[in-house]
Amino acid sequence: MPKPRRIARISITIPADLLLAADRLARELDRPRSWVLGEGVRRMTRDTTIAAAPEPVVDPFAEHVEELEAARLRRLETDLAMTPEERLRRAEEMTRLAGLARPARNRAQVIAFDSYEDYEQWKTTHRAGR
User: Fold this and answer.
1) Three-state SS annotation for the chain
2) Per-residue pLDDT at 86
3) Residue 37 lies in domain
4) Is residue 79 situated within a structural domain?
5) What is the distance between the alpha carbons of residues 112 and 12, in angstroms, rounded to a whole number?
């Protein structure tokens, strides 16, 4: 008798257009969304050139380390010269401005469960946390 596969629950964030494509493909294939995403990972890991040769990570700021450290030190000294109340007011203002510059996005969240009982437990816990 074959050994049952272990399944793990995860939460991922993906662009909305990819989520729509995954949902469309899942409907066309009459499969769950998690199967479609898992199949994509399975196919990617079969290609050894992709799995064996990841692109190197290049730090765009590597040549400016000393300059960045000096700027951080100046910022710290400036912040420490303010009273706690002034720092709090500035932090609140920066938060307000950041919200104007980059409004909150609507994101789709995928949550999968191994059983209906797991879902019920999550729902109960999730509602209690609100």
Assistant:
1) CCCCCCCCCCCCCCCHHHHHHHHHHHHHHCCCHHHHHHHHHHHHHHCHHHHHCCCCCCCCCHHHHHHHHHHHHHHHHHHHHCCHHHHHHHHHHHHHHHHHHCCCCCCCCCCCCCCHHHHHHHHHHHHHHC
2) 93
3) 8-51
4) yes
5) 11
Does a structural domain hold residue 15? yes
User: What integer pLDDT is reported at residue 9 of this predicted model?
Assistant: 83
pLDDT of 4 reads 66
The answer to whether residues 73 and 39 belong to one domain is: no
Per-residue confidence of the chain (130 residues) as pLDDT tens digits? 566 667 788 888 888 899 999 999 989 888 889 888 888 888 888 765 555 555 666 777 778 888 989 999 999 999 899 999 999 999 899 888 887 877 767 777 778 888 888 888 888 887 765 5
**Count of domains observed in the chain:** 2
Judge contact between 106 and 7, C-beta under 8 A: no
Tokens found for residue 38: 């898992």
Residue 19, in any domain of the structure: yes
Q: Is residue 130 part of a domain?
A: no
What number of residues does the chain have? 130
